[in-house]
Amino acid sequence: MRIAILTPSRWEAQFYAAELERQRALFEGAGHEVLDQRWNEADDTFLRGVDAVLPLIAWGYHLDGGRWFDLIDRIAFRKVACVNHPAILRWNSDKAYLSELADKGVAVVPTIEAHGEEEGVLARAAATFKSDKLVVKPRLSASGEGTYALSASDALPEDVRDRRLIIQPFLTEILTGGEMSLLYFDGRYSHAAVKRAKEGEFRVQPEFGGSEEAVEAPPEARKVAEAALACAPQPPAYARVDLVMTEQGPLLMELELIEPDMFLRYAPDEGAAFRDAVLKRLA
Asked: What's the rounded Cα separation, in Å, for the pair 135 and 111?
């Protein structure tokens, strides 16, 4: 097969080259041709020339949501094989899925949906959560973009005032224990890592100085992760489930089914299960 791995729209190659080469080697080692293509330049001519699309490094898609959703629709319309499936990509692009999972009984960090133009939105959230410390992020976002820790009396930052948002209580366990990421391939647990924020920061992403280390996920974390995965529109071939460990138990922060860092550098099989899960769907 000619497999296209979607890459960032504008970031320089040195920021994703190592991950691209790691993934390229997995599929080329199984006898397939691998192309890389900036996701925002994947037009119909390109799609007609490939057998499959993997959105594995489409970082930055949230910065141009209209173009991103248009690409998903064109992939589906042209029936180009895509892993994860376009229905999963579309659903997972909007963080409103968190409320859906909570309604289905998944242990999710308490979440309300709002709009930045709503008067008194932070006060409403603080009253709902009985907490003055809040986390605000756009419903279409990634890599900590547009994510803020705020108090009820704060003004919303300018860049999120005209956007659809989710608001959650700020959980101090993020500062003390970090964020645990569990990796699943074809529904089977593979490995896990903990991401920690640097001193004075709450965002754990490397863009903000975060660090990481491999860990073994406890049974209670795997139980929450698997409950969340069971609620996806279709069983995903690959998934990263981000949790925060609290006194009340693990709580889901994000279900990453589009272009997560899968920490393949920590995988016990160096990524073989991930590759096999993807190729199984393409077959």
From this structure: 10
